Structures are given as C-alpha cells and as structure tokens.
Amino acid sequence: MRTHVGIIGAGPAGLVLAHLLQRAGIESVVLESQTRPYIEERVRAGVLEQGTVDLLNELGLGERMMRQGLMHYGVELRFGGRGHRIDFADLTGGKGVMIYAQHEVIKDLVAARLAAGGEILFEAKDVSVGGFEGERPVIRFTQNGEPMELHCDFIAGCDGFHGVCRGAIPDGVLKAYEREYPFGWLGILAEAPPASHELIYANHERGFALMSMRSPKISRLYLQCEPDEDLNKWPDARIWEEMQKRFATMDGFSLTEGPVIQKGVTGMRSFVVEPMQFGRLFLAGDSAHIVPPTGAKGLNLAVADVRVLASGLKEFYASGKRDLLNKYSEICLRRVWKVQRFSWWMTSLLHKFGADSAFDRRRQLAELDYVTSSRAAMTTLAENYVGLPLE
Ligand code: FAD
Ligand code: DHB
What we know:
This protein is of the alpha+beta class and 391 residues long. It has helices spanning 12-23, 36-41, 50-58, 63-68, 88-92, 102-115, 165-168, 236-247, 298-319, 323-326, 328-350, 358-371, 375-385; strands spanning 5-8, 28-31, 47-48, 70-72, 74-79, 82-87, 97-99, 119-121, 125-130, 138-143, 146-151, 154-157, 175-190, 200-202, 209-215, 218-225, 260-274, 277-278, 281-283, 289-290. The chain contains 13 helices and 20 strands.
C-alpha cells in the first residue's frame, strides 16, 4: 500500500489531520489499533475551545455539534462556600467554549471521513515505523493476522501517550520534561440534570471537584482522589455524598443526584518532548505532550498541533519546500508550553496538595480571591480557557 501521509491513531489529532489533508488534496491513511465502536464510546474530555469549534465548522464537520453541543460563555469558580462567575464573553470579546463529548467528535470525524471515501484501518495490530530518517518511511502492521506495509512520504505519530511513534525516535534525540501530581480524578457520568447551566470548578478543604455536563439530562462530575484510587471503595452513594460536601455553598446549593452510568480514574501529569519531529516522522497531540485536565486543553492542543502540521505538508506538496515542516516543533512548542503553564496553574489553583503548609493554603485562597476580583486576572483566565489565538 502507498499513500502520501501515514497517520497512526484515530484520536482527535489523527482524524482532524486526515480531514485537513483531504481539504488540501493530500492523501492519507489512518491506522487505529482499536475497533470503531471502542473509539466511538471511549469517555474522555468534553470542552472544545472556540478555535476548535470554528475549525470543525470550517471543515463541514460541525453540524451535529452545533445542534447537540452546549455553548458556554462563562464558568464558575467556587471556594469558601461562594461561587464567582468568570464571564468569558465579556472578557474576550464574545468568545466561549462548546461542551460536546470527545467521543461524539470522534463519531462525526470517522463518519465524514468514511463517507468521503477516506481510509481508516481499524484493529491494525503490531504497528511499527521505520525509514523516516531517510526519504522512504514505512509503517508495518498486521490486520486479521496478515502482515501489511504502508509506504508513505511522511508519518504522523498521532498515537497518544502510550503509542509507538515517540519511542521509535532514536535515543538521545528527544528531551522529556515531566511533572507528576500527587492526585488523580475520579470521573462519573450520571443520569442527572446538571445543577447549574455552566461548569463549576470547586476548591474545597476536602479536595477539588468539577461539575460539567453532556446534555441537559446528563452530568459529568469529577472528584480529586488518590492517583491509584480503588474504584471499589466508591459505591455511588459515597461519590454523591462527597460531591455534595465539596460543592456546598452558604446558600444551600445541592447537586441533583441520579444513576451513575460510567466511572473511571484518570492520573494527572504534565509531559512534553522536544523536538516533536525527527526526519519524516512528526508527533502530534498526546504522543508529544500531556496536560493535567484542569484547563480542559488536551484535545484542543492536539487539534492545534495538526493544524500546523497540515500547513507544513500543504506547503511541501504545493512547492516542494520544507520551511514550515522544519519549523513544526518550534511553532507547536510555543503554544504547547503556554498551555502547559495554564494547565499547571489551574491545577495548582484548585487542588489540595497533601504537603501544603498553612502558608500555601492561605496563598491559594488569596490567589482565588484575586482571580475572581481583578478584571486583569479574570481576563488572563478567560483568554486562556477559550483558547489562545492560533499562529
Ligand atoms: P488519543 O485520543 O489518545 O488518540 C490516539 C489514538 O491512537 C487512540 O485511538 C489509540 O487507540 C491509537 N493508538 C495508540 N497506539 C497505537 C498503535 N500502536 N497503533 C495504532 N493506533 C494506536 N482531556 C481533557 O481536557 N479533559 C478530560 O477530562 C480528559 N479526560 C481524559 C481521560 C482519559 C482516560 C484520557 C486517556 C485522556 C483524557 N483527556 C482529557 C485528554 C484528551 O482526551 C487527550 O488529550 C486527547 O484524546 C488527545 O488526542 P490524541 O489524538 O493526541 O490522542
Ligand atoms: C470536562 C473535562 C475537563 O478536564 C475540564 O477541565 C472541564 C470539563 C468535561 O469532561 O466535561
């Protein structure tokens, strides 16, 4: 088999890239190790930046999102028993975010790609990459037990944090920067109407909590927990009891409870490799970087990377020039580090750190007070949350 760009991974990075390339008349094949139902049901993020929303619409992929997604123009920060709204529209000149589940985005991207005759090879196993140091990259894999080869001009490593592409780059090329956090998030989906129209990020003595949603009938909630929290210790009643405590306000706020339909624990880390490219292999999205979820940035950053990559590939196929491709890492990393900074900052602002001294706790409360009372500070939060401008 032969194509222009071999894309490994049918996550947001890989699928958006395939669509961007299609628009530019560049062929690609996507290889995905999982089945189609698996990637279409995998519960993950839910917040799309304004720029991600605009891009999906521009690509003609936003029809269902615009119908079923919930556009939000603010969030609430809750601490000391009180809520404080950050008004994105007012602070950013009308921008907002779309609440629309990542797996719904995946469904839309897969359906549109297949409808346009694009190739996505599901259940591609034993994937390995080679030849990218020179001019003849090749992806080897098996499908239904048959060994296969995909020859291409470029490989896009969109295979997430646990994929094979980052590890295929020779030792000594990449430098990794990393931070682990001493907590995780216990996330649930519940058949319960969200108790507020907008997201609530709560800083509480007992730990962080987040109320989000998927529809007017389904809530998505998260609780700060141990990084290796045992879900068996969390029957539904205990989860609701803990949530109620962390969201409680002076004026008697209470969450609407309902059956829990999904539960999971996510670890938290910040991670970046530099550079994000080697020869004809380009890393994009989680394969190159991970952010803690507090800023809701993972998916959006993956999309921002592949926009840069698609521009570089477009330039190459139009003119043979590699100027933009050569600068891929440099351009992406400027955004990556700003988003890392923001995600780290939101995480530090809102979580309980086990080793916190009384001084650190006072400092955190002062920062929350500042961020919810200074227009300059609120603007900083708002412009990062709705998404920094794309280069
Ligand atoms: P992925 O979505 O991980 O896609 C990579 C794809 O590659 C996958 O489909 C995978 O199956 C495939 N793949 C992997 N290895 C191979 C291989 N060897 N061969 C072929 N295919 C391969 N972000 C938030 O902002 N908020 C959240 O609440 C949030 N929750 C998350 C919960 C979980 C459990 C996880 C894992 C991530 C979460 N994220 C969250 C982060 C966000 O979902 C990711 O940043 C986003 O999915 C990145 O997109 P991607 O395309 O780079 O990678
Ligand atoms: C959601 C996830 C996040 O990480 C976040 O910061 C906000 C919302 C969500 O899943 O809805």
